[in-house]
Write a structure and sequence with these properties.
Elements lengths: L4 E4 L3 H12 L4 E4 L12 E3 L2 E3 L11 H12 L3 E4 L3 E5 L2 E4 L6 E4 L4 H8 L4 E2 L4 E6 L4 E5 L4 E5 L1 E4 L3 H7 L4 H8 L3 E11 L9 E4 L4 E6 L11 E7 L1 H6 L5 H15 L9 E12 L8 E3 L4 E3 L9 H19 L1
Parallel strand pairs: 1-2, 1-13, 2-9, 6-15, 13-20
Antiparallel strand pairs: 3-4, 5-8, 6-7, 10-11, 11-12, 14-17, 14-18, 15-16, 16-17, 19-20
Helix pairs in contact: 1-8, 4-5
Length: 328
């Protein structure tokens, strides 16, 4: 009787690894501290409908990921988003010449990770705090003091600062994860009863507290009764205002939004703020995934590669490939 493989984290990286291992006939068990899957691909259900507060869209460049995204599209999990895209600089809006294909989950971002998870065994609301090894097998300890196991291998698929603590049994891997700087992002949703009089549906912003904004209803499959907008603060602004009260964050970003959108902005009828402590790695790495094959401990995530959704997916594939190679 072989012990199953534990995967900590059900974002794109963890689910990518899980799918590859499951397809290869391996038993797996997934763990996530949140109520549902998705990590930064998660969507938040709210009074204003479902909102993508994290990843806003993704692109596909690597041939393997392009093929997978096409499968997602065929199955109805993903759709192409073709926003009327702008750049904002020095208070001026200009149409963006950017023509790359952008994808979103449909009818919400979390549709993709929910579909990837499928019927795989998972424990939600279970925050793993320690990964420790007996003579042969791994056990996991959660925040409530419960032990899970035994497991033959462990894949840590969490943001780097959380991963470094869970990789303590492999100091080299822990050190690599600890060296990764993750940038924070404040995300704010604003909902308006009447549609704002602007053609902007997505905008890259320079020299403002905001560095990105998107009109939710421009994304395929979104059914919002309000005109909802997602604003992402810049990493620098988010770092400076990490502990600012949510109401103050909403007020400041609403003000910045009103200044740059180029039309009258009434008081919103709906607001929401969410702080992503580990939104994205500050720089790209070329690790693919981290592995200590002798210890049977692995780590994957967008931080092992590009910081993009594609990087997370590829990193999960890489972790699974290395684990399976070691099993042969």
């Amino acid at each position: 009787m072989n012990a199953p493989i534990a995967i900590i984290g059900t974002g794109i990286a963890g689910l990518s690894a899980a799918q590859a291992l499951h397809a290869a006939g391996q038993d797996i068990e997934l763990f996530d501290k949140s109520r549902g899957s998705g990590g930064r691909m998660a969507s938040k259900r709210s009074d204003a409908g479902s909102l993508d507060l994290g990843a806003q869209y993704f692109t596909a460049r690597d041939r393997r990921f392009v093929e997978v995204v096409q499968q997602w599209q065929t199955r109805g999990w993903a759709a192409e988003w073709q926003p009327s895209l702008y750049n904002a600089q020095d208070g001026q809006l200009s149409a963006s010449p950017d023509e790359q294909v952008r994808w979103v989950g449909s009818p919400r971002m979390s549709a993709i990770t929910r579909a990837m998870l499928g019927a795989l065994p998972v424990r939600f609301n279970c925050r793993i705090t320690e990964v420790f090894r007996g003579d042969r097998y791994w056990s996991l300890l959660d925040a409530d003091g419960n032990s899970h196991g035994p497991f033959s291998h462990v894949i840590v698929a969490t943001p780097a600062p959380q991963a470094s603590a869970l990789l303590a049994a492999a100091p080299k891997l822990a050190g690599a994860a600890a060296s990764v700087v993750m940038e924070p992002t404040w995300a704010v949703a604003l909902g308006f009863d009447s549609a704002l009089d602007t053609r902007v549906e997505g905008c890259f912003v320079q020299d403002s507290a905001i560095d990105w904004l998107a009109r939710n209803r421009s994304k395929p499959g979104r059914d919002n009764h309000l005109d909802t907008w997602i604003l992402h603060a810049s990493s620098a602004w988010s770092r400076q205002h990490l502990d600012l009260a949510r109401e103050a964050v909403i007020e400041q970003l609403h003000g910045a939004f009103a200044e740059l959108i180029g039309c009258t902005v009434p008081p919103p009828s709906f607001t929401l703020a969410h702080r992503w402590l580990y939104a994205r790695p500050a720089q790209a790495h070329q690790w693919g995934a981290l592995a200590d094959a002798d210890l049977r401990l692995y780590a994957c995530g967008d931080w092992c590669l590009s910081g993009r959704v594609e990087g997370a997916w590829l990193s999960g594939q890489d972790a699974a490939r290395r684990l399976l190679e070691h099993l042969q």
